[in-house]
Design brief:
Helix content is about 60%, strand content about 5%. The chain is mainly α and about 150 residues long. The protein is globular.
Length: about 150
């Protein structure tokens, strides 16, 4: 069995970051190619996934959750509303805020998104056992928990 040189040296946060950034970029490219022609760009499919798990959230939740400025989120939400993927309604307790909900078209698009993300996972984990997949997930989850409440990020 061939062992990569980088496995024989101490792994730094820079090494980990390089792989995470690479994988994130490749996922973005994969999803952009798969969703080409749908009208979805950038983080819009992630917004739909977030809305699926958090029905009725306010638009500003997306700003906080994805660390994206309000203007960008507003523009993308307007575009998703124009594509009939979401419905935006003015919040009753704050006329400046919008509450978001999925439309039937949005729910149908989520099925497509899930299919593409499953394809991505299948590509990513070629050669991994189910136990390996679980271990990777547990380790990344543990790392996320370690910094979840870190206010410096």
């Amino acid at each position: 069995m061939k062992v990569s040189v980088w496995l024989m040296t101490p792994i730094t946060s820079r090494d980990l970051n390089r792989f995470l950034v690479f994988l994130n970029r490749k996922r973005s490219q994969f999803m952009s190619a798969r969703l080409a022609g749908s009208g979805l760009t950038g983080p819009m499919y992630s917004f739909l996934l977030c809305l699926e798990k958090n029905p009725g959230i306010r638009q500003d939740f997306l700003c906080t959750h994805f660390s994206i400025d309000k203007g960008t989120v507003a523009r993308l939400c307007k575009r998703m509303e124009h594509l009939a993927l979401i419905h935006r309604s003015v919040c009753s307790d704050d006329r400046r805020a919008y509450q978001l909900s999925l439309t039937e078209t949005g729910r149908a698009m989520l099925k497509v998104i899930h299919d593409h993300l499953n394809d991505w996972s299948d590509r990513l984990f070629v050669g991994f056992s189910e136990q390996d997949r679980r271990t990777v997930f547990e380790m990344l989850s543990h790392m996320a928990e370690n910094v979840k409440d870190d206010k410096t990020s």
